[in-house]
């Protein structure tokens, strides 16, 4: 029964238009994300992902042995993250015309964030480490990782929608 | 470690991060609503972001090792990002998937989201640090079982 209901909901969820906001903002943005990765790779040979920053930065305040492996990279990972924040800020000032804030409820961000923090570190990568650098390296581990988190995220988001949680 | 780094190392990391973060903001990935729209099949644009970026990276990862042996600022050999496969990839990927589907935010997009002025996203970043700490605390106590696994991105 649940399966039938779910199917009906999924069918309803399929939009009349696949790209209601066009594709240029996504394609140009994706190109830039890739160029950021390539710029760092060109100069340093490093294929950088975003989630290691969480653990490497914790090494500044925690002496748990797990975080000590990042002592050698923690300083540049802070700089990388500051760059990401700064890049977002430039977009906000020049294109967005000021600050933008999400309507998604804080409990979803907090609980989701905890799971993202655990999952990306246990799973060896996130959307940038696995999704961009790993897939770009044709890594089978990363392709399996992406298929795993992408499919689980779709099922989760659909359930959240069906449960009526919004925003 | 940092004392013998090339003077352009940190500036390049900053500029690379800046382009990366600008791209995430420009593509609206820094907005959880847009990611949730993708996961709920209302706007498939995210595919272009992730695979567009992966294709650009793939070209660099494939071409650079053929034309140069070592990166100029570090002297490191150009390699690809390859991680060993084990069940952690599936377990971690599953946990990340639940978190991503619930919140619509992932680490890189969360940092860019701070940049676009989204103070509410600090809930997610606090959660991410808490989650990363939890798993690090747990794994530090099970290091014997953890030998051989390498750092992830």
From TrEMBL, chain A:
Listed GO CC annotations: plasma membrane
InterPro entries: Sulf_transp_TsuA/YedE
Subcellular location: Cell inner membrane
Topology in the lipid bilayer: Multi-pass membrane protein
Keywords: Cell inner membrane, Cell membrane, Membrane, Transmembrane, Transmembrane helix, Transport
Regions that span the bilayer: 26-54, 75-94, 106-123, 143-164
Keyword Transport listed: yes
Name assigned to this protein: YeeE/YedE family protein
Annotated organism of origin: Saliphagus infecundisoli
Lineage: Archaea, Methanobacteriati, Methanobacteriota, Stenosarchaea group, Halobacteria
From TrEMBL, chain B:
Pfam families: DUF6691 (PF20398)
Organism: Saliphagus infecundisoli
Presence of keyword Transmembrane: yes
InterPro entries registered for this protein in UniProt: DUF6691 (IPR046513)
Keyword annotations from UniProtKB, A to Z: Membrane, Transmembrane, Transmembrane helix
Protein name: DUF6691 family protein
Record field: transmembrane: 7-26, 46-64, 85-103, 109-134
